[in-house]
Design goal:
about 190 residues; mainly alpha
Length: about 190
């Protein structure tokens, strides 16, 4: 192979650690032939070629690429997709209650950014989505019973909402505890 892929030495080390030596040698040789025939060493493209040309490599290469993070989406793309999902959740909120839900999503993102800057463990993007889901679902439930603002919401409304799905009560409650609403709402604390 004229120029080995940037991940070549990592592959050899991974196989030596996780596979039988004879199997590892076979995978290395077959992968080298695949790289030469496919004329690419980009992990996703190489896996696509392996599915067609060397299916016996798919398991070992997938395991290696995932373990070493070569199949992870680029950080910018991950953030873009998460932003699109948040936007859809906010858009699904009734219009009268939407500004506070959008503000809550922004607050969670700022909190995540601050935690990253301080070297603390930030909330995952999925956690933020779950928190926004809880508030969105509450807003939809409130809107269906006639609430056009957060001001008249009581703990009775919250308990009714949480009782709808006991399996999700804890995660929903965690999100609702972080949610700030205008003064006068949540007439009793929880």
């Amino acid at each position: 192979m004229p120029t080995p892929p940037f991940w070549w030495s990592d592959l050899a080390a991974h196989l030596a650690e996780h596979r039988h030596p004879i199997y590892a040698a076979d995978v290395v040789a077959t992968t080298a032939r695949l790289v030469l025939s496919a004329t690419t060493s980009e992990p996703r493209t190489l896996l696509a070629h392996a599915r067609n040309d060397a299916p016996e490599l798919v398991g070992a290469l997938t395991d290696f690429f995932r373990t070493h993070g070569y199949l992870d989406l680029p950080p910018g793309l991950v953030d873009q997709r998460a932003a699109a999902r948040r936007a859809r959740r906010i858009e699904a909120t009734p219009a009268a209650l939407r500004p506070q839900v959008a503000g809550f999503a922004d607050f969670l993102l700022q909190q995540r950014e601050q935690a990253q800057q301080l070297g603390l463990r930030p909330n995952q993007l999925k956690t933020i989505e779950i928190r926004v889901d809880a508030v969105r679902d509450l807003a939809i439930g409130l809107h269906t019973v006639g609430h056009a603002s957060w001001a008249g919401v009581t703990t009775t409304h919250l308990e009714s909402f949480l009782a709808l799905n006991p399996a999700r009560r804890a995660s929903r409650l965690a999100g609702l505890r972080q949610f700030e609403v205008p003064p006068g709402a949540w007439t009793a604390g929880f």
